[in-house]
Amino acid sequence: MRARIIGTGSCLPATVVTNDDLSKIMDTSDEWISSRTGIKERHLVKEETTASMSAEAAKRAMDNAGVAAEEIDLIIVGTLSADYVTPSCACEVQAKIGAKNAVAFDINAACAGFMFALNIANVYLQMGTYKTALILGAETLSKIMDWNDRSTCVLFGDGAGAAVVRAEEGTAGLLAFDQGSDGVRGSVLACRGRSNNNPLVETSKDLTYVHMDGQEVYKFAVTAVPCSLQKTIQKAGLTVEEIDYFALHQANIRILQSVAKRLKTAEDKFPISLDHCGNISAASVPILLDEMNRKGMLLPRMKIALSGFGGGLTWASAVMEW
Ligand code: UT7
User: Fold this and answer.
1) pTM value?
2) CA triple 61-63-67, angle to 5 deg
3) Is 38 a pocket residue for ligand 1 (Cβ < 6 Å)?
4) Which residue among 27, 40, 70, 320 is least crowded, i.e. fewest CB within 10 A of its CB?
5) pLDDT for 95-121, tens place per residue?
6) What spacing in Å lies between the alpha carbon of 189 and ligand 1's midpoint?
7) Confidence at residue 198, expressed as pLDDT on a 0 to 100 scale
8) CA-based nearest residue to 139, from 113, 117, 120, 102
9) Measuring CA to CA, which residue among 23, 2, 102 is closest to residue 58?
10) 196: pLDDT confidence band, cut at 50, 70 and 90?
């Protein structure tokens, strides 16, 4: 029995903001953003919410899989920017799509959130607890950006991606997984939540936003990701040469190029969505996977490696046969 992705979907907000648009409201330029990151534009929410984009991505994934809402047993959303503290985004999605038989909850593993959610589903499916899961990565990062901090706000975007995962007999599906966390280095990419406001303390009204030490996160990514991918490929009984595509978290094109170099493999095996999406944390991997799926790039028996990495610090990789 294997956990197999049988359908994908995604949803981006309607509003596109180019690098040139940003250069009109802050001290930045298309030249700086494009050359340092590969990002050219991103989608930012106006009316959309994390749950509304998630529900749309979920419907598209269910359509693609040919699965009805009643068949979904489990919904997990990887997110750090849900609309509410409670109910969870997953419970909102459940209500919006009418998946009345599902168990629903969110997890926060930042940019590795979709990958962590996928492995949780994998374990449930392997155990036989559930048969059909809906796994999402969804973010409205624009609401937790400091729009006066050009070193972070130009990098991120909003959106949601989804995959329907089903327990199936056969060789296709998830072959191997690797996950890790390093809380000691967590402060290099952080966004503090509400501070204490009980009657015993003086309350601070300070709102806090994402803060990132870009160079430290960069160094972490280019060492942890190739190592995790190598481990996962080996666990799957495969070699780097046998992997058809590497669908990685979309933070910076230079990170993708560096991972390709460290794995001694071709850069064109690393599809890209960051040019038109920016970095959408947990949503990056499922949106990229959906774009690859809809372009017809994913063929039966292909071997695909996935990896997410970021805040926590957290990282997770998977190898699957499509
Ligand atoms: O999703 C979670 C994982 N996240 C990541 O993997 C992000 C990893 N880090 C990175 O991708 C890169 O470190 C960044 C893209 C964030 C930054 O690139 P960098 O080459 O490390 O640039 P830097 O932070 O060293 O900044 C270089 C210069 C600075 O100016 P000085 O001090 O050299 O005069 C910045 O002030 O670029 C300046 N700068 C900007 N200039 C124009 C910073 N942001 C901007 C900007 N526009 N938006």
Assistant:
1) 0.97
2) 90
3) no
4) 27
5) 999 999 999 999 999 999 999 999 999
6) 13
7) 85
8) 113
9) 102
10) confident
